[in-house]
Amino acid sequence: MAQASEAGSQIEKKEWILNGFTMSTPGHLAPGLWRHPRNRSAQYTDIEYWTDMAKVLEKGKIHALFIADVLGAYDVYKGPDNLDPGLAGVAQFPITDPFLPIAAMAAVTKGLSFGITASTTYENPFLLARRFATLDHLTKGRVAWNAVTSHLESAARNVGLETQIKHDDRYKIADEFLTLTYKLWEGSWRDDAVAKDVEKGEYTIAGRVRRINHEGEFFRSAGPLTVEPSIQRTPFIFQAGTSSAGKSFATKHAECMFMAGMDPQGAKKSVDDIRARLVQDGRDPNSIKLIVGMLAIVDETDEKAQAKYEDYLKYVDLEGAATLFGGWTGTDLSTFSDEEDFRFTGPGAIQSLVNSWTETIPGTDGLKWTKKRVAQEIALGGPSPRAIGSPKTVADILERWIQESGIDGFNLAYVINPGDFEDIVKYLLPELRSRGVFWDEYAAKTTRENFFNDGLGPRLRDDHPGSQYKWTSDDINGSS
Ligand SMILES: Cc1cc2nc3c(=O)[nH]c(=O)nc-3n(C[C@H](O)[C@H](O)[C@H](O)COP(=O)(O)O)c2cc1C
Fold first, then answer.
1. pLDDT tens across 275-313, in order?
2. Is 410 found in the same domain as 341?
3. Which of 1, 248, 321, 446 could bridge to 396 as Cys pair (CB 3.0-4.6 Å)?
């Protein structure tokens, strides 16, 4: 840790991005913990649960609440097609619609942004564009879209498909989906179309709204977008996906990428790859902010934080954890014997995940990774790294991540909601501020301005592909 701090003093500090990471379910990344006496997550159907969480995050000047989402149950474990093992502990089921609490949270905050996961595979582009544009108005420009292609068989069957569309085809659809929504958001309304001129009795000026007439391989939409222009127009774009097709999609469209990563060296490889792809695409290599998930459990002292973590462990539901693992990886742990060691057995992706745990989690060197240990490992925080300790210990771990990997920040997971976020605000943020890596105040009022902090306003940057569809007042011909 001392090493990380010394390294920190030699390297120029950058200001970090910190999001709260959640999902609209009582069991996001901690199955079984819904019954912990300090956890309010089982109140997720109450609007006050959301408004209280938003106030805690805003108090800390956290950038955004990032809300994951899935459209089906995890039914791989003890399956196929078995809903039961994840029900008791809550393996991200039940789950409600992440869009609906946003307006209420916006009403009790001024700077916090809201990143909502929505699937390009199952949503309709026009309807989704309308929903985001409405929220961009109601939040005054504080909304972001985590554009995902989705990966659950159960989701495909919920929306009427027999099986999932093939992986790379989902990204082709996603690419056209984004293009169409840019046309709707950026190209339907000229910037000066809305006059609200009481004298002339003219709300919108004729000739300054047009159809977009999109006819593509997967979608058709005549337009115009029926929502008048909002502050950001296009919501700030997040992406989460790690395959080659996923990275190509991200480097074209994303403004912030949520990467998978267990250790700083592994994350650095992805960071370098993404920055190089951006240059190939003609975008500024720093035009995408890169973040990883992190479970930070912090208290006054290392001992108190460790005791808190050990208390949380008592509530873990391993059946729920195995259910999550099945959903995320497609691998059914019940098909392996109790003694099999996942360093050497199972699909290659799982062996490499387990081996990265062996390399990065203290005290696991040489230990067997049985299915029980695998479930235990992901039971609190999912497949994210953990930082447990005093403010100094946790800040050292995070600082080492930033410096060694080149990422820009973190999606901070919780076990107890909002208690773990409250602890971050109370204990960790003052330490980060004293190190000069986290701001005291929001830089601006909109998501894009807060994430980029570059003085370039709330609209898409010029090198972003959506910018070509902007209809400005100089563009007097207005032809599409
Ligand atoms: C860190 C991370 C978070 C993700 N969060 C979600 C999510 O909330 N909802 C979802 O449907 N998919 C989520 N995904 C999955 C992506 O949507 C994508 O479908 C999946 O990773 C397959 O794409 P890939 O092969 O490019 O990784 C996430 C992926 C990663 C890496």
1. 999 998 888 899 999 999 999 999 999 999 999 999 999
2. no
3. 1
